[in-house]
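Budget justification aside, the reviewers requested a transparent look at the raw inputs and outputs of the sequence design task funded under Objective 1. We therefore reproduce one unedited record. The lines immediately below are the structure tokens for a 612-residue chain.
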């Protein structure tokens, strides 16, 4: 029993207290670590020695599962959830037009920060961890001046299971093996003590008994060629917003490397859980749900394999029949000689019981039904005859209903990460990101959105693209919206976004991009940009009028409304002048044509008519 919490100790006792606390928790949670290794083996389809640095890619046996139900289910669930990228949107709570525009720019900033950190790829890997182990952890760090999200393997995270039975954790530990070389680069003032630290311990001496594989792993658990040491990073959240009892520490077994206060009310992690349990904080994954069925499938396949090996043909002969052993061979058209009254006969022995095959098919089907996943989805197939886009969308929506809870977890993970990215960018001050646009990219710094009160903003998510990625499906969706009058033909062409039509599409879209750019410049700078005769003024009048009406609804200031109104009035005047000029030119042409016709009908002058 520990008499004093580690965050209450002095710095010189901190490393001992943290290592003792973590050792106590690890001993109490051995079953959890066994399960993590078992689930890793099930998904990886190999008898991995362990999950330490010198074990995770080594196997004690070359035997593989004949049918890996767990991997099929996890991969399909990940694909269904992470099919579309999720983008956080920052909404202001009321506020002026300027505040709302800042919210839009802040949303672009988060998108740029996610792109810079390759966050979407990390989120997909973390989602896979959540489906396998029940928990996917992402740690948000600053590395070389850039904000990044690091995938954390579930076994690295240690919580007090008694504390998190019915509440969120206030203390969290991350135990990781780190090379002495890199550790000394990070903490050069402790180089001597780091060199003296013991090598990282090999903890995976236990072996789960799920996979019917060879357990002889001693050869793989003898040290490592790398000089790693165990490092624990510990956090204790402050007990309140204005309290100063939060603490953050990084320790080795023999030295405290970092000791500082911690005033954030959350950990620098975002958690994604596949299923939340009734009690406890850590989630339940597919591997745990499907473990029983996978073991049953393994046993059935082993029996089928054993029966198959026994199904060798037998030769029946009478005791009086004599056969030359030399004639028993694999030669084509061989002649078999025998002596006796009855010739020898060949008999095929046994067959695989149909009940065994039915049991195998039922177990596999039950595994997919249990997770609400169709076998066709796992094989990227669709039902025969189901070809129209609406029908496919309906089928997909029905299947997605089962995974709506995990889909919300996936969205909440992005929202939580967005909040932490913004908070970290604030500490870095002039953090710069590039925001991808259709044909270019814009640079945004945190200073551009620093005036926005992000604590009072609402973070929500929306899919990056609701349209199909398949050209045929996208074309059908856009055609349907055009027929319903939901979009205009120009907007439909922009939505197609086909790479091989990009050059032509960019030229056609120039009139739209030009008008939208002018609107953005005028509203941002409050400076008037007059219409140009070379622009599509009729289109511009329509778009400017819509922006004007939208500005009235959003309570835009009168100065910006005047800019839009004046542009519309000036453009209308230019269109009117052009129409009047066109009418005058048409009238002049008509008059000229009439004069030519009249002159053609008049007799030629100075010509004496001929007498009859």
């Amino acid at each position: 029993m520990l008499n004093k919490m580690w965050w209450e100790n002095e710095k010189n006792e901190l490393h001992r207290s943290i290592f003792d606390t973590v050792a106590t928790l690890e001993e109490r949670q051995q079953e959890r670590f066994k399960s993590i290794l078992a689930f890793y083996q099930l998904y990886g389809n190999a008898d991995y020695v362990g999950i330490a640095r010198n074990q995770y890619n080594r196997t004690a046996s070359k035997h593989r599962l004949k049918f890996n139900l767990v991997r099929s289910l996890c991969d399909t669930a990940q694909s269904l959830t992470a099919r579309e990228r999720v983008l956080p949107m920052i909404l202001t709570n009321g506020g002026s037009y300027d505040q709302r525009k800042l919210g839009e720019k802040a949303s672009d900033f988060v998108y740029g920060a996610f792109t810079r950190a390759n966050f979407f790829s990390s989120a997909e890997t973390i989602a896979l961890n959540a489906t396998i182990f029940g928990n996917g952890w992402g740690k948000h760090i600053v590395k070389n001046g850039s904000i990044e999200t690091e995938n954390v393997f579930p076994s690295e995270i240690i919580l007090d299971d008694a504390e998190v039975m019915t509440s969120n954790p206030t203390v969290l530990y991350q135990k990781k093996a780190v090379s002495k070389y890199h550790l000394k680069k990070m903490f050069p003032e402790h180089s001597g003590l780091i060199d003296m630290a013991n090598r990282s311990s090999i903890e995976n001496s236990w072996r789960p008994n799920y996979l019917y594989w060879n357990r002889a792993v001693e050869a793989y658990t003898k040290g490592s060629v790398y000089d790693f040491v165990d490092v624990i990073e510990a956090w204790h959240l402050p007990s309140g917003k204005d309290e100063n009892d939060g603490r953050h520490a990084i320790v080795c077994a023999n030295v405290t490397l970092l000791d500082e206060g911690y005033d954030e009310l959350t950990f620098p992690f975002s958690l994604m859980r596949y299923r939340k349990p009734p009690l406890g904080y850590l989630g339940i994954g597919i591997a745990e749900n499907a473990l029983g069925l996978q073991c049953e499938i393994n046993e059935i396949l082993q029996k089928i394999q054993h029966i198959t090996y026994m199904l060798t043909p037998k030769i029946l002969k009478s005791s009086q029949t004599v056969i030359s052993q030399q004639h028993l061979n694999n030669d084509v058209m061989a002649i078999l000689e025998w002596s006796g009254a009855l010739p020898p006969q060949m008999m095929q022995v046994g067959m695989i019981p149909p009940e065994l095959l039915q049991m195998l098919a039922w177990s596999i089907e039950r595994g997919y039904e249990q997770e609400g996943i169709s076998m066709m989805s796992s094989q990227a197939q669709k039902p025969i005859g189901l070809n129209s886009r609406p029908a496919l969308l309906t089928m997909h929506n029905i299947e997605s209903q089962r995974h709506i809870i995990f889909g919300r977890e996936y969205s909440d993970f992005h929202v939580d990460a967005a909040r932490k990215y913004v908070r970290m960018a604030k500490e870095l001050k002039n953090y710069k990101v590039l925001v991808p646009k259709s044909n270019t990219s814009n640079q945004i710094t945190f200073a551009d959105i620093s005036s926005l009160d992000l604590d009072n903003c609402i973070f929500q998510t929306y899919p990056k693209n609701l349209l199909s990625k398949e050209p045929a499906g996208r074309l059908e969706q856009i055609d349907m919206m055009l027929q319903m009058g939901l979009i205009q033909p120009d907007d439909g062409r922009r939505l197609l976004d086909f790479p091989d039509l990009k050059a032509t599409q960019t030229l056609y879209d120039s009139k739209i991009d030009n008008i939208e750019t002018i609107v953005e410049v005028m509203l941002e700078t409050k400076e008037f940009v007059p219409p140009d005769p070379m622009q599509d003024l009729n289109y511009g009048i329509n778009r400017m009028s819509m922006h004007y009406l939208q500005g009235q609804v959003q309570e835009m200031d009168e100065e910006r409304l005047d800019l839009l109104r004046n542009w519309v009035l000036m453009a209308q005047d230019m269109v009117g002048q052009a129409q009047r000029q066109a009418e005058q030119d048409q009238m002049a042409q008509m008059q000229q044509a009439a004069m030519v016709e009249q002159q053609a009908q008049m007799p030629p002058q100075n010509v004496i008519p001929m007498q009859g």
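The chain is about 45% helix and 15% strand. The radius of gyration is 37 Å. Computational costs for records of this kind are itemized in the attached budget.
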